[in-house]
What we know:
This protein is an alpha/beta fold. It is built from 14 helices and 19 strands. α7 runs parallel beside α8.
Amino acid sequence: MSFGRRGKYFEEFLNPRAANGIGDFLELNLIPNLKGIYREDLLKHHGLKPKKPEAQAVLLSHAHADHANYISFLHEDIPIYCGKTCKYILEAVKEQAKREIENEVIDYKKRPVFKSNYRDPPIIRDFITFRTGDKIKIDNLEIEPCHVDHSVPGAYGFIIHTSEGTIIYTGDLRAHGIHKEMTEDFIINSTMEKPIALITEGTRVDSGKTLESEDKVYDKCKKNLIENNRLSIVDFNFKDVDRFTTFYKIAKEIGKKLVISFKHACYLERYHRDKKLKTPDSKDENIFILKPKRLSGTYIDEDYIDYYIKKRLSYPNIITAEDIRKKPKNCIVIINFWYLNMLVDLKPKKGMYIHSLSEPFNEEMKISYERMVNWIMHYDMNFIQSHCSGHINGPDLMDMIKKINPKNVYPIHTEKPQLFNKLKTNTVMVKEAKEYKL
Ligand SMILES: [Zn+2]
Ligand SMILES: [Zn+2]
C-alpha cells in the first residue's frame, strides 16, 4: 500500500469506494493489474472473470500497513508466510480496527455486500508463521527468513534460493537500532550467498549519516520527564515495541505510571505472548488504561459497544481523565494524534508534550502537525521532539549493499531510486507489475 500514491487522489473524507470493490484501486493504479492473485468476489464484482490463483505464496516481511494492508485483495488460496510476532500484531490490528476493504488481512467478508449476506462469517486466510532459522519450501524455491531490526518486532528479510542463484530481499531494516545485531546477522548471511539479486528498501537513501539511537531517546525523554512536575503526554507509534519499552522503563524508574488506551492494550497483550520481547501485560502494576468517554460521556458500562473495550472493562487498572487530574504528575499518558481531543478532559496546563515520531515530511503531515502545535499552545505545554527512525540511513545502506555485493540491485520502497546509480553494482530501475528474469 503506497500512502503517497493513495494520497494523490484521496484524503480523510474522500476514499476508495468499497462498494466498487477492486475497481477504484485498479483505476487509480493503487494496486497493479496482475493476473491470478486477486479475490474471486472482487474480480467478479468488477466484471472480470475469476481465476484460480497462479501464485503459491506471499512472503510478508513485517506488520506495517504499507506492507500488510493490501493482502486484503489477495485470493484466499494464497497462503501468507510471516513471522510469529508479525501475525500477533496483525491480530491486534484486526481486534480494534473497524473492518474496511483495505484492512481485511486476517480475514475478509465477501463482496458485494447485500442485506442477505452481510452477517455471513468472514473467510479466514491461511497464515503460516516462521521464526529465524526456519527453512520454507515453496514449489521449487527454498526460502530462509532472517530477522532484521526495524521499528516493529517480527521483521524479516528473505534469502531466496532459486535454480539461477540466490535472491535477497531486505524488507524494512536499520543498522542503528537497539537490536542492530539482527540486521548484522542478516547482512552476514546474505554476504555468504554471493547473491545474483538484491531487492532493497531505500526509504532514506538520500539521508546522511545520522547520530540517532534509542538510547538517546531514552536519555532525553527521561531527563525531561523527571524535571516535569505536571502532566506528561507522549505520542509514539505503538507498533514500535522498542519505543514502548523506552517509555515503560522511564516511567518505572522515575515512579510514574504509563497510561495506555484500550487499543494499546490489544497490542500489549499480544507482545506479552512473545517472551523474547520482555514486555509487561496490560494489567501490569505500572500501567493504567485510560477509559474514553463514549455515548453518554458518564463512563457507564452501557456506553461501551466496541467489543475490544467491553471485554476489558473489568480490568483492575482502568482510570479516567478525572482520576489523572487529581495526581497529574504521577502519569505519562500516551495519546496519539487522533485522540488529542482527550486533552480537554486531561487539562495538561503547562505540562509536557513529547513527540516521539518523525517530523512531518509532506504537506498533509504538516497540516496535522500544525493542529498538534495548536493543541500544545492552547495548553501552554513544553514541547519535546525525540525520535529514532526505523529505516537505515544512506551511508549504512550503501555499506550494506557493498558488503552483500550482489550482481544486481533492485531498489524498491524509495522515492529516489536514481540515487542507487552511484553504486558500482548494476542497478535496475524497477517498474511495477513488470516481470524480471534472472
Ligand atoms: Zn516498516
Ligand atoms: Zn515499509
